[in-house]
Amino acid sequence: MSLLSWLKFSELGDERGxxxxxxxxxxxxxxxxxxxxxxxxxxxxxRGFHAHKDLKQAAVCxxxxxxxxxxxxxxxxETWLDNPARGLLIESGIWREMHDxxxxxxxxxxxxxxxxxxxxxxxxxxxxxxxxxxxRG
Length: 137
Ligand code: T46
Prior knowledge:
Bound molecules: dTDP-4-keto-6-deoxyglucose
Number of domains: 1
CATH architecture: Sandwich
Helix content: under 10%
Number of strands: 10
Order of helices and strands: EEEEEEEEEEH
């Protein structure tokens, strides 16, 4: 099964331009407790390199583009985030990396929990051990 789960947002466009509305439990399939955005990423910088123990997120590039890599410990998939009308759903227990940010990239992320550093797994070997432990139950 693909790790790439997309949310398609309606573009409420008219002659003035476009508008996308993101609503909890409607366009976004979870309770939205936190919103953050990543912008002015410096050339050549990659971000992420961690997983979350218990966090759902939806990531949408509202301007520009970046390349998102998702990894569940068994398979690794990547995609470009380059469409403000399309969000990528990222479930718990998924390693993520973001690469190749365009200079104008604004990556908007909605999350179902408040920030909690203890929810992060920032070591890849530790992440693999966690996915193995989950498989064993
Ligand atoms: C994720 C990817 C897509 C906070 O204080 N509050 C926050 O809500 C966030 C997201 C971060 N921070 C602090 C923690 C670090 O000191 O901001 C600093 C940068 O965070 P981090 O290095 O984790 O940023 P990224 O771009 O590697 O990862 C972020 C999110 O942290 C992460 O949850 O899934 O974007």
